[in-house]
Specification:
about 140 residues; mainly alpha; two-stranded antiparallel sheet; 6 helices; elongated
């Protein structure tokens, strides 16, 4: 019985990541909501598109592989989803210093801060990692 709860924990985590992809990732102090990951898939190209597909695709694959038994599939889908988030972070840190200063100024002026989608994705990754390793025999 406890094993089913552990499988459910991974499933809940990946479902939170998938749900977070449809919610705004940022919000401004002026009441405007930012874009979500699905918007990046529909409207963007390049790095944003690749990372959006990695995050959402990994989450959806993790949900599917929670019901279909394929060796290491859940781990691979979790790694792909988290790798998409890490790739976004590395791209931000590798920006030109002038671009970083400009982006920081714009974010400070518009009072942009993380929103529900961002927090759901991070929480989902943590829950899925815990669920995966608790279920590992």
């Amino acid at each position: 019985m406890a094993k089913n709860n552990k499988i459910g924990l991974y499933l809940i985590g990946m479902a939170l990541v998938a749900a977070g992809c449809f919610l705004p990732l940022t919000a401004s102090g002026w009441g405007f909501n930012g874009s979500n990951i699905v918007d990046y898939i529909k409207d963007d190209s390049g790095d944003s598109l690749v990372t959006a597909i990695m995050i959402l695709g990994g989450a959806i694959a993790g949900i599917v592989f929670s019901f279909v038994a394929v060796k290491y599939a859940k781990l691979v889908s979790l790694i792909v989803s988290v790798a998409g988030g890490i790739y976004v972070t590395l791209n931000i840190f590798n920006m030109n210093p002038m671009a970083k200063k400009f982006a920081h100024g714009v974010l400070k002026f518009t009072q942009v801060h993380p929103s529900w989608g961002f927090y759901l994705i991070i929480a989902g990754w943590v829950i899925a990692i815990i669920g995966y390793f608790m279920n590992k025999d």
